[in-house]
Each structure stands twice: as C-alpha cells, then as structure tokens.
Design a protein that fits this description.
The complex is a heterodimer of chains A (about 200) and B (about 325).
Chain A lengths: L1 H4 L9 E4 L1 H18 L6 E5 L3 H17 L5 E3 L31 E9 L3 H13 L4 E9 L11 E5 L6 E6 L8 E6 L8
Parallel strand pairs in A: 2-3, 2-4, 4-5, 5-6
Antiparallel strand pairs in A: 1-8, 7-8
Helix pairs in contact in A: 2-3
Chain B lengths: L12 H15 L16 E6 L5 H12 L3 E6 L11 H10 L4 E6 L4 H7 L6 E7 L5 H15 L6 E5 L6 H12 L3 E5 L15 E3 L2 H5 L4 E4 L15 H8 L3 H6 L5 E3 L12 H4 L6 H20 L14 H7 L1
Parallel strand pairs in B: 1-2, 1-3, 3-4, 5-6, 5-8, 6-7, 8-9
Classes of the chains: A alpha/beta (about 200), B alpha/beta (about 325).
C-alpha cells in the first residue's frame, strides 16, 4: 500500500533494504516473468497505481519493450474513488487515470504497485478496472510484498518479499519523485492502521 | 474545504484549484462505458429548488447519481411550499430524512446561508443560485472551461457583459476569477451595475467595444426580463446594439478568445445566433463541464471525515423534537 508506506520518520532511523541496482534488477526480472507467463507481450497492458506504481509501470514497460522490440502500452489507474476508507480521512485529491487508447477489453492487465500490504488498494483497483472494461485476466506485480494481508489477495510477480512487523514502515523512493531509488524500512512507535 | 459552498468567496485559491483539478480527472468519466463511481454510495443528496431551473438541477442530479448518491428532487411547485410551508419547516423535514447534502436554489438572496447557519440541518449546503447574490458552482464550471482552453488563469483578461445588477453568475465569477488571478472587467449600462461594485475586485466599463480588443474570454449574461421591474434601458434594440455580441464585435476579438454564456440565452438580444453557434463558443461545453465540476464539489464536501471541523452546529431544540 503506497500510502501506508509513506512515513515522515527521520531518515537516519531508516534502513535501506534495496538500493538502486537491486530495484533495477528486480524490475528487469519482473518484466521477464510477465513476458514468460503471458508468452510474449501481445495483449499485455501495464497499469500503475499512482503515484509510484505509475513510474514502476513505465520502467517495466521499457524493459519489456527492449526485450520484445515492441511497444508495451502502460498507463495509470487512480483508485481514490474506490477506496474503502474514504469516510475515515479528509477528502483526497484525485490522481490521473490514463487508460492506453484501445481500452482494456480482452487484454491481460498487469496492475503494478510499489508496496503490497493489506491488499485493500488492490481490491479497490479491481473494482476500478471493472468499471473501465472487461479484461481477459488481471495480474499483479509489486516491488515489495511486506505481508499482513487483510484480504485474500496475492501478487503474481514480486520484486522482494520483505517480512515486516506492523510497527515498521516501508517506504519506496524513486528518482522520478524523490532523490534516489531505494526501499527503506523504519520503525514507528505508533502502530499505524493500514490503508 | 469548508463544510458548505455558499459563495465563491468561501474558496481560497488552493481550494478552488483542488476543485478544478478534481473536476479535470472526473471529466474523463464521461468517456467510460460505465459512467459511475461508487464514492458516495449510501449518501443522500437533496435538490431543493424553489426557483425554476433546467440545467443546474439536471446537472446536480447527474453529478450526484454518477457518484452513486441517492438523489431526492424537491421543487417548490407541487410541494407543501405552495401550501405555505416555511423554509425552516422544509429544512427540518429534510434533516429528519437524513440528507447528507442539500443543494438549494432560492429566489431570495441569502436563503442558503440561512439554511447552513441556522442549526436547522447538519448536512452540507451547496448554493445553486440564490436571488441576485451568488451561484458558485456556475463560476467554478466557467473557470474550469476557461482553464481548459486558456491554461492557467493568472493574468488572463475576462470580460463579463450585461445585466450585472441581477446576475448571481457575475458576482460569483468576479470573486472566483480574481481569486484565481484573472483580471475581470464588467461591462454594463450604468443602470445595470450594482451599488458598491467599486468594492469588488474588478474593473468596470460602460463601453463594450473598448473592452473587447485584449480579452481572453468574453462572458455574455442573460438579460433577466423576469427581474426587470423598472426601465433599466430604453429598448431591447438599443441594449442589443450597445451591449450585444454581434458578428462585428465577434470579429474584433483576439484569435484565441472564447465566448461563454451561462444560459439560457436570448438569441438576438445579448448574443447573436451566429456567434452562439460559432466554433469559438463554448456554451454547450460549459454544460458538460458543469457535471464534472459539480461531481468534484459533492465529492470534496461529502466524502471523507472533515477532521479540521470542530464547529458542527448544535441542533436547536425544535430540531430534536422532529427527530424523536
């Protein structure tokens, strides 16, 4: 869950679990696994979940495109309006939804997010996809799976399985938005509710 | 955002930009096969219309339904209002029914403010036009339409022409557009400019021709014959000649300028039919954008717990009786 993974801890307390080259290798492997599973890139559409999933989708699409020598459609899917915790927080600003032209009907949609946590974001994303079209299949790729699922959801492609305790916060930084590429883990004293 | 939207002055620049950005994302919904979001499921929106309206009521109804809210339409005709029920009693009934938002249009300026601040209802109140006072969602959709065509409104010149005196659209637009950094010029005959217009954040002029050369958007207001209880100008023909947007004036506008009208239009009076139907007229698009803007307003007012809000009004005792 991207939002749960963002923290305001002092950076000094954060431990780096993946560095830039680890992330790059993980994304390259995920790209190959997507191609392997789907026997090529025909009919595959990548949809990143804002904000960081969008950048990850673009990077994975670039690797897949260089392997397959074909354009891989990549877009973004905002799930804000489908969240199950809208009533618990002040109204949020919406993120862009950008569905590749041609739509998602009968395509294989690979959802891409940075951190898989409770699974509620993915549940919301499945609802959102349902309103956009009817894909042939939906698969899920995440950079980090930190466990503690609250819904029966699992990822098809995982960059790194990261056993965590609920008192820890996982944060993904990407150079598209932050200073550098890294996955950081830090301790928070207050146990955070998942989002 | 605040709990209510009563006036364009309720919105600071940050809020206004948030509404417009949210609306921009929601506009793409119109291209989807399923034009519906589950966001306000289980919420009730009441459209309380004491005055006739086509596009505003339909627009609010479509917006609420696309967000999956339940919509109750109330128009004064055919309701207990025609039997003499007061605004207060109507409001208490709505509160007892559990309305989460009340969209109100009323012929009296200040009726939405009264509804929001009297303690009769706990719901969010959205002003959909009150008398000659304000119509903030119209201003938001006008600003949204301008932003789509002109980009950032900072430093843009907007000319609003016509019956400013009776126009809630002009007042709301003047406030909102100046919040967004645009320079607003009001053009009207002296009799149709309100008293105190010098305190508004706008410039005024009596001469349309001199205001057209440099403007980026020109908004024609409807001549509101139903509110004209005195002779504000000698004849319709003279008004049309001096303040109507005809072909001659239209050709003098800069290439990129857009023509707007909040509707309903008096073709041949304030705007000629050719101008209204021209490629640079965005009048039909304004209606489409209205749904997205009203969705954004309802979403931002209704979804989510407003953690900053500690000033929820205590309901007065008469209210408690109605509930129990």
């Amino acid at each position: 869950m991207s939002s749960a993974s963002r923290s305001h801890d002092h950076p000094a307390t954060a431990r780096e679990v993946l560095d830039a080259s680890d992330i790059s290798r993980a994304l390259t492997r995920i790209a190959h696994e997507i191609l392997e599973r789907n026997k090529g890139s025909a009919n595959v559409i990548l949809l990143g979940i804002p904000t960081r999933g969008v950048a990850l989708a673009a990077r994975i699409a670039a690797v897949m495109a260089s392997v397959e020598a074909a354009e891989i459609p990549a877009g973004s899917l905002d799930i804000t309006m489908y969240r199950d915790d809208l009533r618990l927080h002040p109204a949020r600003a919406l993120e862009p939804t950008d569905i590749p032209s041609g739509g998602i009907d009968d395509a294989v949609v690979v959802l891409i997010d940075d951190v898989l946590f409770s699974g509620r974001t993915i549940r919301a994303a499945l609802d959102a996809i349902n309103d956009v079209g009817r894909p042939a299949a939906v698969q899920l790729a995440v950079l980090v799976d930190r466990g503690h699922r609250q819904l029966p959801i699992r990822a098809d492609f995982v960059g790194k399985n990261l056993p965590t305790s609920l008192s820890e916060t996982v944060r993904v930084t990407l150079r598209e938005y932050d200073d550098s590429d890294a996955v950081l883990i830090s301790h928070t004293n207050v146990s955070r509710s998942s989002s | 955002m605040k709990h209510h939207l009563l006036s364009s002055a309720d919105l600071n620049r940050e809020d206004a930009v948030l509404v417009l950005d949210t609306a921009a994302e929601l506009l793409s919904l119109a291209d989807r096969p399923i034009k519906k979001l589950p966001t306000l499921r289980g919420r009730t929106v009441v459209n309380l219309f004491f005055e006739d309206s086509t596009r505003t009521r339909i627009s609010f109804e479509a917006a609420a339904k696309r967000l999956s809210a339940d919509v109750i339409n109330f128009s004064a005709k055919g309701s207990s209002v025609s039997k003499g029920e007061s605004l207060k009693d109507t409001a208490l009934t709505l509160e007892a029914m559990g309305a989460d938002a009340v969209v109100i249009r009323h012929g009296s300026s200040g009726a939405p403010h009264r509804l929001a601040n009297s303690g009769w209802v706990r719901s969010s109140v959205v002003n959909a036009g009150d008398g000659t006072h304000e119509h903030p969602t119209q201003a938001l959709l006008d600003a949204f339409t301008m932003r789509k065509h002109l980009g950032d409104l900072d430093g843009r010149r907007v000319t609003i022409v016509g019956d400013v005196l009776h126009s809630r659209v002009a007042r709301s637009n003047a406030l909102l557009l100046s919040t967004l950094g645009a320079e607003v010029t009001l053009v009207a005959p002296p009799t149709l400019l309100p008293v105190g217009v010098d305190t508004w954040p706008v410039q005024t002029s009596y001469d349309l021709d001199s205001a057209l050369d440099k403007c980026d958007a020109v908004m024609m207001l409807r001549v509101q014959a139903e509110r004209m209880n005195a002779a504000f100008f000698p004849s319709a023909r003279e008004y049309s000649r001096r303040y109507g947007l005809d072909d001659r004036r239209f050709r003098r506008l800069p290439e990129h300028a857009i023509v707007m009208h909040p509707g309903p239009m008096n073709r041949g009076m304030e705007i000629s039919a050719d101008v209204a139907d021209s490629a640079r007229s965005v009048i039909v698009e304004q209606v489409t954008n209205g749904v997205a803007v009203r969705m954004a307003v309802l979403y931002l007012l209704l979804s989510g717990a407003d953690l900053s809000r500690t000033d929820l009004p205590e309901l007065d005792s008469t209210k408690a009786e109605v509930v129990s």
